[in-house]
Input
Amino acid sequence: MRYPSEAEALYLLRKYRLFKEIIEHSKNVARIAVKIAEDIRAAGHEVDVGLVRSAALLHDIGKWKYNRQKGGLLLHAYESGRLLKELGWPELAEVCESHFGLNKEEAMFYGCPEPHDMLPKSLEAKIVFIADKIRPGRSSKEDIIKYFDRKAKDWKLPPDMKERLISRIVKIWEELERLGMRV
Ligand SMILES: [Fe+2]
Ligand SMILES: [Fe+2]
Output
């Protein structure tokens, strides 16, 4: 399967006028995601590194629409998926739409135009989901949990949704660790 190359992905990010910081973040996520994918492949598991790289570069492309819109922040992942599907990359769309990890009820709560489960299912989607949570100075599972615990207030997440989000991160993190991820 062919996915957009790094140059094509960067071209798309510029075409949709993504902010420079988002492009830099996307390059970082791609670097981390490819490293995790290679760790897992080295441990003997099958993983599509090309899909991981391409999806990591494009996961936030939906921010062209939802970056500043009130209440829309959590829907940018949905828009990434919608747009990539429209551009003819359904596999890429599936990985990108689940990088935030909302179920159907949560998508509805945030006003998603087409609410459905957007949870990372494939190994590639789980890798992009976790790589996106890692930032400079936030690279352990504990730091990431602390960050989302704080962020939940800004995003006005109801407590049960916050708990679900954090438990999803922990579950997927531990699953990738069992498969060979070394962060
Ligand atoms: Fe995102
Ligand atoms: Fe991101």
